[in-house]
Give the backbone structure.
Amino acid sequence: MTNFADLTTIAVGGPIASFIEPTSRVGVIEAVEDADAKGLPLCVIGGGSNMLVADTPFDGVVVRDARHAVSVLDEAAPVENGETIVHVNAEAGCNWDDFVDYCVNLGLEGVEGLSGIPGTVGASVVQNIGAYGQEVASSVESVEVWDRKDKQTKELTNQELHFGYRMSVLKASMYSAPATPAAEFFPTPRYVVLSVTFALHHSATGVVGYGQLAKALGVEVGERMSTTDIRNAVLKVRASKGMLEDSHRYLTEAMRGTKKSELVAIAHNAQRTQEGNDEPDYNRHSCGSFFMNPILTKEQAARLPEDAPRFSATLPDGTPGVKTSAAWLIDHAGFHKGYKTSENATAGLSTMHTLALTNRGGASAADIMNLAKTVQDGVERAYGIRLIPEPVVIGMSLK
Ligand SMILES: Cc1cc2nc3c(=O)[nH]c(=O)nc-3n(C[C@H](O)[C@H](O)[C@H](O)COP(=O)(O)OP(=O)(O)OC[C@H]3O[C@@H](n4cnc5c(N)ncnc54)[C@H](O)[C@@H]3O)c2cc1C
């Protein structure tokens, strides 16, 4: 029997009653529709890098789309401002970093800053992945979905996807309020992604959009660099923070074949060189950033200490707000890198990044939850801010 622990980057989660891997578009729709028609809990899973699932059995259906194809829809076509846009379509099950590598090698600009983010193309649009000054929202043209409510396929345009910070209409369909699941569809959106069409620029260079990246490349923010150099620098910076997947997971039975074997080998070599051994890297056994950066009203932000980071942002109601750093809040509330609730705890903060909750080997979902709640409560006590988890929390409640 397959367990969520076998399918998720944080390697926790209980047994799955029914695990299906359709290899065709119609197979995906049928698997989803069949589970919905029977009223069974449904979880469409990609790379399992943004979910924390309970240890108890999941008495429903887990669907993992086994389609990975990428196709270039048109030749580079000049548009009015002299730029050239190339449309590329990727099936939902395609590994995200395989897709980025493909685009960079083809001389396409637009997703290079998102190198090394685990997961799939299908899930990339659910939470509008972002890093190093880029968000997937800026390169998505449209998404083909199966609408579980209207029971038909639809093409949602970029505008209809209502992208925001770690948000889209897909993610919104799973929640009735922040971190409060909406029973109708949770833990998978109303719209199951079948494929994503990207509009990318035909260019071998891209913009360096983030200070840390610019420093690593020895250039100024806003300068243009080769997309290959940007990709390599992003992977290096990510590795230095433990913000990549542990490449060992692709050698397991449950994950084999979900990522291109050449790229697994490259990632594996890089990890071995960095670590100096071939052991699992527990700093990478995480869901990435566990909490979202809070977006506060100006009044709330004014109550933060003077040295707390502040960035302009938009509140969910569309009014101006202030984004602060969840990592800063956690660290300044006393939870430093490597923090554990007790010396022998198997769950702990990454020793490289305060925002990553990690499974140090043998942790259960309950252990991760205990750590998450401890951090959440501590930050609230110190700053009056309740951090909202970024991953989808299934079978447990973390508000
Ligand atoms: C080490 C590490 C670093 C990370 N860094 C970043 C980062 O820099 N930026 C960032 O934004 N995120 C980051 N993440 C989070 C995560 O990688 C992304 O959110 C990713 O897009 C999740 O993809 P997945 O396929 O693993 O989704 P899963 O975890 O499998 O699923 C997440 C949600 O998406 C839904 N879903 C999956 N596939 C589909 C589909 N086809 N249709 C509809 N819904 C679907 C699931 O039902 C679930 O609700 C990181 C995670 C890790 C472990």
